[in-house]
Amino acid sequence: MQQGTLMRKVKSKSWKKQRYFKLQDDCMTIWYQSKRTGKTESAFSISDVETVREGHQSEVLQSLAEEFPPERCFTIVFYGRRGNLDLIAGSAEEAQCWVQGLRQLIEPRSLTFALVSCTWIRDWFQKADKNKDGRMNFKEVQRLLKMMNVDMNEDHALRLFQDADKSESGTLEGEEFVLFYKALTQREEVLSLFQEFSEDGKKLTLLELVDFLREEQLEDEGTEELAMELIDKYEPSETARARHVLSADGFLMYLCSPEGSIFNPQHRVLWQDMSQPLCHYFISSSHNTYLIEDQIRGQSSIEGYIRALKRGCRCLEVDCWDGPNGEPMVYHGHTFTSKIPFREVVSTLGKYAFKQARTLLPHPLLGAEGSWWCWPPAVQDLKGQQAPWRHWAPQGASLSPTPQELKHKILLKGKKIGRLEDTLDGPGDEAADVSDDDNGAEAEEERRRAKVGGTQHTSALQKDKETLAQALSDCVIYCKNVPFRGFQEARSHSRPSEISSLSEAKARKLIRDEGKEFVCHNAWQLTRIYPSGMRTDSSNYSPQEMWNVGCQIVALNFQTAGMEMDLCDGLFSQNGCCGYVLKPPFMRDEETLFNPSDPSSREGPSPITLTIQVISGQQLPKVANSKDGAIIDPLVRVEIHGVPADQAHQETKYIENNGFNPRWDETLQFQLHVPELALVRFVVEDYDKTSRNDFVGQFTLAFANIKPGYRHIHLLSKDGTSIPPSSLFVHIRITE
User: Fold this and answer.
1) Could you write out the DSSP letters of every residue in 500-557?
2) What range does the domain containing 353 cover?
3) Would you indicate the residue range of the signal peptide (predicted)?
4) 544 in a structural domain
């Protein structure tokens, strides 16, 4: 259909607008326009789409289940925090056409450097070809350069244009534009490095490539085999591959590949020991997971759980309250946030608990409850699910289980009648503990309920609770909530299977006053930290100071982008993104002397020096909502997040009017006293002398995952999604 497919775009039960949707000829862009006005509303790139869900798999489409059959409904899910697109097709056949077509387009996600460049060239050509005649005159080329963040001398641009215009027609088309683009993107700094190791300046022999890998990239094992693999994988010329040599194009493709990334590819997969007790790991954790906006009036949505789980989160929060007709509802108690049925949350966790995009996450999920006033139906919903919710500890089980032992299990954190030993050995008669709560909501609700209905009603309610509390208690195995009354009290009376929750303010006071004791405590028991109740805007605190004392469950508002979530994503991007990162050895020793405020207390090697030469940037994105024709003035800031003595940042000068291929060639140097806890964050900003610099892109990783040598850093957006082919080129050295 020339005009596109007519479908309903749905935002709510009452908001259903008809729009024409069409896949552009480039097979990379979809636009949609109003049926009434014919005006194009929006467009999005296929590269922005994470997945497509069929049927009633969103709250909006579920609310329309009686009106529209599932065969006509589907949801387009985008990367990052962008809202989903719910659509209703005119027929089941049309829906399947779009679902299957989109899945085929997004499936081949192995974006090699060559493919990204090809897509990039095609996208820019189509944007700049104003009259859509398949050719570009010099005026269109000048417009293209502005769009690409390039402020180039007109004479130089004309020279490049004429060199590429082999047909001397005054326009560029097809291969001529590719030649122009290649001349424009010539990487002098990479060519210079290539020629430094190439005897003839045209190719790297196998031995020359081995020398480069050993001397510069510090690859010390199986270097010759690695060199052969790189030639086979990245050399575009069949003739060169047959001769076991690498051309300049192949060399650039290697440097832009995962093997040439600053992130050690061996640490992308599951590489750490997963047989240690749970308390020996940092665990990716979210706060009020159901919220996708603010804490007072924000929307509650199962999308909050899906997004968190897909980011590798392993500790979720569920606040469960009485709803209409006795149905449990999840929302932020005593606020105006919207509500979602508890059964939908349980069902969602059943689908997504052990999946991350297309990757399986087998290691345990912790369900951190905040309030459970609807015990009878809540327990029924839990027990109506599959085995992961019903994890009963076997006879003789350890009081300190490991992620390996708890694979595919969901642990419920909450109050418990009796001790874990009683669960293992037989029923206990111990009274239920009262644990800390994020905002005192449980105690407040208890008092409110005690006033309702008189003595007889209260007595019946209390009896009902006592009877039913055991059912919920039995679901709590390894994460019994206990109040925190000091480290000495915990050492004397608490057990490894218990957990305490602390506010960020209380945790900071303990870090300041009893840092060493805090580290020792976290070596044998779990601690959860949650944001201050004053953070009604869903802002975050820095997780680093909590990790510095070994706190395992540092809960953040995943819906809020910023430096804090960059650190979280940076730490947990390793180890297969499984949501568990093993703490350093000196933080797993119950008798440790380590105190983050005194780096000398760490037993181990002397401080190391991290030297970073920031060489260049490539195809940096424009700042959002910038004026037409505006070109960024980029600078790079490198931040070290770690123990107080290691906290530091340095930045390069800014490069005026060049976001396409800026060159800095500046060296920054940092001394790290506790490198095991350090995170390194690279930030690109658009310099502004009259106001705050604008964010362009960032990349964060743990120091332990850095590969030395000449490396590319592939930048991420504010939402943590990739923005290919934007990158930085750096040289890394680590010395003692």
Assistant:
1) EEEEHHHHHHHHHHHHHHHHHHHTTSEEEEE--TT-TT-----SHHHHTTT-SEEEE-
2) 281-423+468-502+524-532+555-577
3) none
4) no
Rounded to 5 degrees, φ, ψ at 414 are: 180, -170
Helical segments of 563-660, H only: 563-572
Q: Per the domain annotation, does 79 fall within a domain?
A: yes
DSSP conformation class of 236: -
Q: How far apart are CA 5 and CA 20, in angstroms?
A: 5
Helix (H, G, I), strand (E, B) or coil at 221: coil
**How large is the average pLDDT for residues 104-132?**
62
Residues 52 and 198 in one domain: no
* pLDDT for 524 beyond 80: yes
What pLDDT score does 356 carry?
Answer: 63
Instruction: State mean pLDDT over 68-82.
Output: 91
Q: Domain check: are 325 and 366 in the same one?
A: yes
Surface-to-core class of residue 216, CB atoms within 10 Å of its CB (0-12 exposed, 13-18 middle, 19+ buried): middle
Domain stops at, among 106, 127, 145: 106
Give the CA distances from residue 629 to residues 137, 661, 690, in Å, rounded to whole numbers and listed in that order.
19, 17, 19
pLDDT tens digit sequence for 426-466: 544 333 333 344 444 444 433 433 343 444 445 544 544 44
Q: Given the structure tokens 């209380």, which residue do they identify? A: 506
Please enumerate in sequence order all residues whose Cβ is within 8 A of that of 385, keeping only pairs 6 or more positions apart, or say none.
346, 347, 350
619 in the Ramachandran plot: left (φ > 0), alpha (ψ -120 to 50) or beta?
Answer: left
CA distance 599 to 713: 29
- The count of other CB atoms within 10 Å of the CB of residue 1 is 8
pTM (two decimals) = 0.84
Dihedral of alpha carbons 187, 190, 196, 201, sign: negative
What pLDDT was estimated at residue 688?
92
Q: Are residues 158 and 181 in the same domain?
A: yes
Proportion of the chain above pLDDT 90, given as a percent: 53
Cα-based distances in Å from 214 to 72, 223, 591: 57, 7, 41
617 domain-assigned: yes
The last residue of one of the domains, among 45, 73, 106, is 106
In angstroms, the CA 642 to CA 640 distance is 6
Q: Is residue 447 part of a domain?
A: no
- Are the C-beta atoms of 423 and 393 separated by less than 8 Å? yes
| CATH number of 477's domain | 3.20.20.190
**Cα 412 to Cα 479: distance, rounded to the nearest angstrom:** 7
Per-residue model confidence as pLDDT tens digits over 469-479: 577 777 788 88
Question: What is the set of active-site residues?
Answer: 287, 332
pLDDT band at 23 (very low <50, low <70, confident <90, very high): confident
353 and 491 fall within a common domain: yes
- Tell me if 45 sits within 8 A of 105, measured CB to CB: no
| Number of structural domains the chain divides into | 5
Place 582 in a pLDDT band, splitting at 50, 70 and 90. very high
d(CA 288, CA 437) in angstroms, rounded, equals 13
Tell me the Cα Rg of the chain: 29
What does the pLDDT look like over 335-380, one tens digit per residue? 999 999 988 998 888 888 887 654 556 778 777 554 444 445 555 6
Residues 176 and 192 in one domain: no
